[in-house]
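ok so for the tutorial part 2 we go from a plain amino acid sequence to predicted structure tokens. step 1 is just haveing the sequence, like this:
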Amino acid sequence: MATLSATAVQADAAASACWIIAPGRAELLPEHLPPLGDGEARVRTLHSAISRGTEGLVLRGEVPASEYARMRAPFQAGELPGPVKYGYINVGRVEAGPAELLGREVFCLHPHQTLFQVPAHALLPLPPGVPAGRAVLAALLETAINALWDAPPRMGDRVAVVGGGTLGLLVAWLAARVPGCRVEVVDTLSGRSDLAAALGAGFALPDDAAPEADLVVHTSGTAAGLGTALRLAGFEATVLELSWYGSRPVALTLGEAFHARRLVLKSSQVGSVAAPQRARWSHRQRLALALSMLDAPVLDRLITHVSPYAELPRVMNALARMDEAMHGLGTLCHRIDYPPGA
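step 2 — the prediction. this is what the tokens look like for a chain of 342 residues:
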């Protein structure tokens, strides 16, 4: 590995980071970076993004105490329920570190912070053709890839994706690329139909969705959505559950035809590489695969909202309140843009 310059090793630096001070309350707080250590890189953030599912639960204090350790983000500071610096979608440019990374745009599973330093091996350079602004989708695309490793659609399958948020639409985009697959996104927002079509999928409101699906993927985060997913599954089909509800109870009807149709209800979670691939794929390889697949310009349509870093606490506090004025029903990926030299 290339050695660091004496200036880079000795220089302290100041930064700013977003902390969840208490449930429903986020603030920008100063950070001090010590001199860069051997094997580390210093990165100036260009963009981060908010995971509305997981970060929303953290913001609202809805993570069960039993899950605090499992829910730790890779570079989290503080402890759940707070104060905590939480997040895992960060794209930046390397300012100091190994020579082969200097000046490179990279993805890192790091919280929202203007300048940070991590072991160099924690950074993944962006592939050619993947712009930094689109690379914020990598973490959710990685989740979608892992989901379809857990329950892969087969050629000719009918696939229903219940929940047309960012994750659900990425799952639909991947499944629609399987030859012969007919994919239908099911959501309560009819405005998602054009986007579903652009991604190669059909669209239906819940009451109009086609039954007898070979695979149903649920991402809506609601009990009603999960009920719809079970209703759409065909005989001996799999319903793959990607929603995580935190401490919220979920009422689910497992009577009716659930047993007679011999349905499989299966969970998928990105913290572990899906079992069929686990012996041959690492987390880093899976994330690199996700980054490599972000060269499709159509995916820019999933980034529906952009705010400057200075507004991040207001955006996160609105998400905690489910404030429609800031985080309305039309929001998919909300990207945060950082000013140069912030």
